[in-house]
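Q: Hi! First time doing this. I have a protein sequence and I read that you can turn it into a structure. Is that right? Here it is:
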Amino acid sequence: MDLINDRVNKLYNKFLFPAMGCAVVISIYSFVDTIAVGQSESEMGSAAMAVILPFFAIMSFLAVLCGMGGAVLMSQSFGYGDEKRGKQMFTVSFILMSIVTCACWALFLGLDYRLFYLFGADDALMPKVMEYARWLIWFFPMFVLPNFLGCFIRNDKSPAVVMLAVVIGGALNIFGDYYFVFPLGMGMKGAAIATVMGTTAQVLVMLIHFLSPRNRLKFVRTPQFFPKAGIILASGFGSGILDLGVVISTCLMNNQIMKYGGSAELAVYGVICTIAALWQALFSGVGNAVQPIVASNFGAGIPSRIKKAMKLGATTTAILAIAFLLIGELLPIQTIKLFMATTPDVLAAAPDMTRIYSIWYIFLGINVLSIYYLQSISRVKATLVISALRSVALSTLFIYTLPLGMGMNGVMLALPASECVTAIFSLSYIIYLNSKRYAKTHTLVVYAEPEYRRSPAD
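A: Yes, that's right. Below is the predicted 3D structure, encoded as structure tokens:
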């Protein structure tokens, strides 16, 4: 697989299908957990899973923060022909991930159940929450590793290994969810154990890549560790803030839903979040397919191939966005019934909540692809601004202001509104970035270190 010379369409498909497959299988973890818990524990179980969701996002944030930035810089280094520097980026990223993960693990072990009050739990929900969440806390590092390793293995031209890992882990998780929750009657504890088993299997399969003769992910001596660590964190934060935003917005949404609604509305929102996580993962799959092609060709200074890759990514994103919107608008009750044993209160709340929230998907796809693109061409500041707008600033503003006049409908409209405003900003910036007037007066920096520079983009 030659990222610089092979046909862009061929490369895109080679990355897209494994990336999308990984997204589907990874999301099946939470899908099956939510279905098993919702059918066995009904409304309270689904509401508890909504409270736990931010914790999954924290684990994903740490992996992407240390992994995505390093993987992008590694790909740019390989594209430039500097394999030694690429290996240094992997080494620094792994050390960063280990330090950050261990620090957070110690913090969460100390906080225990108190953390989940911040995520929207009340005294009635807390026992159900902790049945599941304590297993996530005990095995915290094992949940960070798959996403981190996946970033590098995928960019090391082995997306099929990542897909194989998530398929095997997902199959084990599905079997465990059924067996532990229903025949053994272990409830939420059984679902959590199944998730731990599936994730551990995923990590073990990914380690196969390091035995391959094609493996370039090796630990090397790395001078100037801290400057490189700063570059990696700055580059990775743009993508990682997508997951950090899930933590912040979900916590705020959970608390606002409990204020303007109740446990039935929170249970519905838990299901919506599970479905939305799959849709966002599929959009990220498109970004993961585009990212190694764009980063490598940016390093090699070939803008025409970057444009071809982005055109393919934009087309796929538009098709997915329309499909997701139609599912939410046309099948709100059916999707909720799939995930949980419904009550009259749940059935009353589901249609409006699902249909309003589904507007989010149209703008989500635009923003996710924009973030991956800007990160791949080293537009770190722009990535951070767009990510912070959608994930923190605008979402917080709308979550607190729209319900004042619209009640529960305002809560559900908050995220679509913030995503829409961000999409307008991100598209405007990318159009400006690719304008001829801009290209004549600016250079695109391949690396954030002065010895690596490239000519202006076409």
